[in-house]
Design a protein that fits this description.
The protein has a six-stranded mixed sheet with strand order 2-1-3-6-4-5. With 206 residues, it is an alpha/beta fold. It folds into two domains: 149 residues, Ribosomal Protein L4, Chain: A; 49 residues, no CATH class. Helix content is 32%, strand content 15%. It starts with a strand and ends with a helix.
Length: 206
Amino acid sequence: MKVEVLDIHGKETGRKIELSDTVFAIEPNDHAVYLDVKQHLANKRQGTHKSKERAEIAGSTRKIKKQKGTGTARAGSIKSPVFRGGGRIFGPRPRNYSFKLNKSLKRLARKSALSIQAKDNNILVVEDFNFDAPKTKNFVAVLQGLGVENKKSLFVLGDLNNNVYLSSRNLKRAKTITNSGLSTYEVLNANKVILLESSLEGINQI
């Protein structure tokens, strides 16, 4: 499929570029997308949750009342989970939530995500640009030129460009990554995916 190349002002340059049908026009695999997004979110979890169990509570070890004759249940420790301030039964423990996915499945998920966005006309191809210095207002001008200032946008660069990256870092709705860092979650989480020309060579080879 061929798409028009835009400049940073959102105007057509008169050039068209070929997007690989094997990446941008496949039948999306919903389950692969689900698994890749699930893994992305699971990997972001810290897993540092912890509550104290019975053996970790600081408290007296004496038997709080006699075993028989009280008419109530037996109780041997103030640290029992049935008492206020006692330990928690089967409480959360630190754990690692990450899990493994095959590389082929992750590639399929990324292709599916790009195909979904392409089908919805949410992908723009923009000629490469650079800034002389990191300036947020310069990046805002690019967003306004492309008409995406009020939308969540994902800019995909061919190589890391510090001036462009730093210019976008303070903007809540804009994110800049390189094609090597492209993920299914980031693609689907954006309202518009803006691909710079230099990024297409790497993306077409996913």
